[in-house]
Write a structure and sequence with these properties.
eleven-stranded mixed β-sheet; 9 helices; 11 strands
Length: 255
Amino acid sequence: MPVVTVLIPVHNDEKYIGSAIDSALNQDYEAYFRLCVIDDGSNDRSWDIAITKIFSDREVETKEDGDIILVTDGKHVVIKKPEASGPSGARNTGIKYTLHRTDIYAMLDSDDEMYPSKVSKCVEKILEDPERIGAVYADYDTINVETNKTIREFKEPFNRQRLFQECIVHSGSVVNRMALEASIEETGFYDETMRTCEDYDLWMRISDNYMIVHIPESLTKVRVTGDNSSFIINKDVWQRNWSRVMEKASERHNA
């Protein structure tokens, strides 16, 4: 069975990072999997919570790579970046230190949670055609933390033409390492020049050569906190990055 790495970038999210980690540790995936938490320059308790949650009283090794600190028990790893680089930079750092021992990545935001069967169901889908399926996404439940209201977000089956119109693939998808490596560019696996739409850009690049598959089932709990990027990032930035995604796709197709 494939080795799965659950990749969780975190920046000042001490309130929810513990729940995100618990949801990853409670997966029913029976094969080998591990967590990689990347603390992206947090100045709250996110780092301490991740260390305690993942390692508890187990023996760990601390390594330094320049100004980056890595703590590992030989399986899971928690990485500390001294300064925030944004979601793309944090994810790319995690991929850099885990790629050699990973077959499939499960992406998870620090304020979200995976339901117990998410990894196993998505991996099962990739294994139906691992040479051609590059990513798997599913429906999800949005939870408003102020009202506690839950809304099911029904995603549509994948269609590449629709992807050019709208990012129909969820950011917390499961990605085949083969497709990830085939889609890398100078700006990284995730484009580090983008503060938003970085996942959209990756799905577009993966879809150039691989299928993306939808599972019509809710497999993630997504919190609406008011601190999500859709609320705090200026609309002009969103529009500029969306346009850049389209420009890059056009450049690739006309090359």
